[in-house]
Structures are given as C-alpha cells and as structure tokens.
Design goal:
Blueprint lengths: L3 H4 L12 E2 L19 E12 L5 E5 L6 E14 L2 E2 L2 E15 L2 E12 L4 E12 L5 E13 L6 E11 L5 E12 L1
Antiparallel strand pairs: 1-2, 2-4, 2-11, 3-4, 4-6, 5-6, 6-7, 7-8, 8-9, 9-10, 10-11
C-alpha cells in the first residue's frame, strides 16, 4: 500500500536504548566559592530499533490538483526489535499515529508515537520527516527528527530529542534506527 511507508516514521519513536549517566550531585562543600548546585535527574543516550507493521486503519485521499498528490492518515502497531532503555526501564510495544502528504514518490510525514515501558508506564513522542516511495508506491526509506513529549507515571517529565532512519523490509514492515538523548527530571 502506497502510504504504509509514509505514516510510520518513528519513531520515531522512534527505538530507545540509553546509556545512562548518573544523576548530578551537589557539591559537598558549603563554602561560598563552591560550585552552584546542578539540577537533579537522569540523563543518557537513546538508541534502539523499532519495527512497524502495515497500518491499520489506513486512510488515503487523492487530491485532484496534480497527478500523484494524496494525503494519508493511519495508526500503525510497532514492536521494539532492539529494546531501548530509559532510566532503568526498557521499551516494549507501541503504536504510531501519523499523517503524510504524498507528492509522487516523496512524502512529508508527521505524527505521534506511544510506547509502553517495562514498568507499564508510557512514553510519548512527536516525529516529523520525509520519505521515499518506489515508482509503484511501495515504501523505500524515511528519515527525520523526534522529540519526547513526556509520558505517564515515572516518565511524566521526560524530555529529549533525536533522529530516526527507516527502511523497508521484505515483508512490508518498516524498521527504524533511533538515536538521541533524554533527560528525566526528578
């Protein structure tokens, strides 16, 4: 389906394997010349792989202004094939909801992604990017940027951003390599 490649850009949601940094600590010195206290929290790198199947549902509306112009909207189930770690929890399954504007073999995509973490909490991600379709409309590749929009429970104050690169698999699914950074404030 032409728009299957378009809408599932994520990420991002992108995938998230994080190498965590320890929380900063305030200086033990109480002298006036001591360094100012730093904000507390957890921060780290994000890296992982997210694979999304065909969208369900997928809606396509052709635009009659020129040949090959269409818009899509879809919801796509996704699984973390290389789990990511954020603040000691790993990514599980999720879904992306997105829209795309198709002009021939080029797509402009944006949407939201929700992933359930190993503790049952969720993380929320916004993504935006460009995709390429084959001449027959099959997804070929996609890339773009993502940013965390928080989450629930432990991840309510999650922030961060990064990039994603997606490629089509032989079975029609798309796999996304996710890279970036996160910060989880206390």
């Amino acid at each position: 389906m032409k728009s299957a490649s378009l809408v599932l850009v994520f990420l991002a949601s992108a995938a998230i394997c994080a190498a965590q940094s320890p929380a900063p600590t305030a200086s033990a010195s109480t002298s006036p010349s001591a360094a100012p206290a730093q904000a507390t929290g957890t921060a780290g790198r994000v890296s992982g792989t997210l694979t999304c199947t065909k969208p369900n549902p997928m809606h396509r509306v052709d635009v009659s202004d020129w040949p090959g112009h269409a818009a899509t909207a879809s919801r796509t189930p996704c699984t973390w094939t290389k789990a990511a770690e954020i603040a000691g929890e790993t990514t599980r399954d999720g879904y992306s909801v997105g829209s795309a504007d198709i002009e021939g073999t080029v797509t402009t995509e944006r949407g939201s992604h929700v992933t359930m973490m190993s503790n049952g909490d969720h993380i929320f991600v916004a993504f935006r990017g460009k995709g390429v379709l084959s001449s027959s409309g099959a997804p070929q590749s996609t890339d773009g940027t993502w940013n965390f929009k928080g989450g629930d429970g432990k991840f309510a104050r999650l922030q961060g951003m990064g990039t994603y690169r997606g490629k089509a698999n032989a079975d029609g699914s798309l796999s996304f390599a996710i890279e970036g950074n996160y910060r989880l404030a206390d």
